[in-house]
Amino acid sequence: MYEYSLRYVFDVRHNTEEKNKALLKFVKDAKIDDVCFIINGEELNHSHLTAVETEPWLEEIKTLQKRLAQLGVTTSLNPWTTIMHSDRGFKVNPELGFKTFVDINGDKAKDMACPADPKWRQYITERYAQYASIHPKRLWLEDDFRHYNHSPLKLMCFCPFHMKLYQEKLGHTESREAFVKALLTPGKPLPERRIYLEQARHEMIETEQLIEQAVHQVSPETDLGQMTSFPDWHAIEGRDWAGLLDAQRGNKTKHPRVVRPHLPAYNEGSPIMYGRDFEKYSAITAAYVGNQAELYPELENSMWTRQVKSNNFIAFQIITTALLGAKGILLNIFDMMGNGINENWGYSKMLSDIKPFVNKLSAERLDLETLSGVKVLVDQDSAFNTQTITGKMVEELLPQDKQWASLLGAFGIASAILPVNQQDISNLKNEIIAISGQILRGMDKDLIRTMFNQNKVLLDGDSVQVLIDLGLGKELLHIVGFHWHQCKTGYQSFEQADGHQVDNVLDPRITMLQHTGSYLSLAYEEDADVQVWSSAYNSIDEKLGNMMTIIDNNVIVLPISTDLKYGWEAQYSSYKEGLLKQMLDEVGQVDYLVGMPNVKLRIDHERRIMWLANFTLDQYDEIKWHFAVKPGDEVEILKYIRGNSQTEKVEVDISGKVATIKKPLAPLELLKIKF
């Protein structure tokens, strides 16, 4: 069954019986399975609570816990602070006595803890043992359990205590300024980078172990859960996903990995943009935490009224967590200052209406490890090896391995995220692999050769540069010359696919001027097997050099970098979609949708089940996909309809390599299709 866990805040100083009754009524009407009480959250937060200050929260929750149990509803806890999200005018209570962190610029926090401070570690384990005393089903660690995004400060921690730790590992004294400069210095990473990342990694795992021991000593049955943020930023704190999550389990035979992935839409923006970020953040997090983890993604409606999201969009967010293999959802749909339940917003009807459908979806959940399609490589350790360009911004350490995931998803090309630390890459054979950013810097040359020899490969400009730096540019790609050209310099203006046609447009053009990275101009050996599919042009139609190419019928090259602000935004073009699909047809077999932009496709390796999700406001009158393996002549479609689910058998029309199901796909709709 798919679990609804309602994140709920009451004001311990201002709660009423009327609000309690409204909560209990909502729980019944909305088919809520678990109420996750937020303690000391947002507007009600007034710094880190002492044991005495915590007790009134727990006493009030215990009373509600008994009443919820009578309804068959469990209780979980979500303390809103570990380190503390941000400075909001408070200071750490002298009674607690722990120190605050210092960021990369030398600025000192007022209310945010140093994550290695022994007194803070003692404090947080004592509080979590206190929370565990009411025996919650789950006890969550908030996503302030991280080294970044603690406004108004930057990456931490560079306090005197941490600097002493760093200096001991360096073997000499070094100022914070010198250490930070070395941490970000261009070129091959210096020892300071590894020392910082390993310290950040291990201190969080050690703290998690202390919390786990304290919690399970008091309440052995309680599952600890970890709330997460952006996986690329977690890489900058050296997060070891398996190490951290297994530390919170303690007895691994009894407790699962429990994770709340970030769903990147606190407000209802464009569903198309939500779809791009869904791949970059939610899908990559799901891959990192592993197929056996229990996922309860975060649905948050900041600022928590109907002004920020429609009910249809909320329902769509919940339903599409099926694409992550989620077991349930954490619903943060009411505010965090004690207003309680608002029955006028229609949430209970919406949630109860879709519950039968999400139950059906979760009964046969998507298996992330058996997905077919392009394998997008990601690496939790990428920050250890990334080379900066200017050395002036922490953002230069961000891994860019997420770019293909987002682009392929938007183009309706079947794909799967593959963390390189979870599988022996040398065992990959006859796959199409997508690589972006500097992920290859973490692999030895023989492994890279094996990977290229056994598979088809998609590369961006940054990954090509890494191969050149490793001395493999000529060996694997026949490259004999290269030069980077930044955008908006008057050099390149657009890319043109000469001799090709997309959507009845001959020689289609795609911008290279704006909202894109730099252009890597490549020269190849004269006798090399290189098919040029597009070329770079300037604004007066002068051809400048090769753009997209296929090398040895094995490697597809998209020679651009990632812009730190815009990413690959210019690549989200129907002309690029058509061009890339034609190129994929040249090198291998992959499933992709036809004429259905921004519809996501997931399909299992054995071609038993296919998931389609329409991240647009357009309706598609029929479903068409280019198949890698010919399907049967009939499918079974599971869809949401009128407060329930409907299963229907439909014929499949085959024409060449394209299959057609003559059934519409509505806006913001997900279908599960069984062959």
From TrEMBL:
The protein, known as: Glycoside hydrolase family 42 N-terminal domain-containing protein
Organism, as annotated: Lactobacillus gigeriorum DSM 23908 = CRBIP 24.85
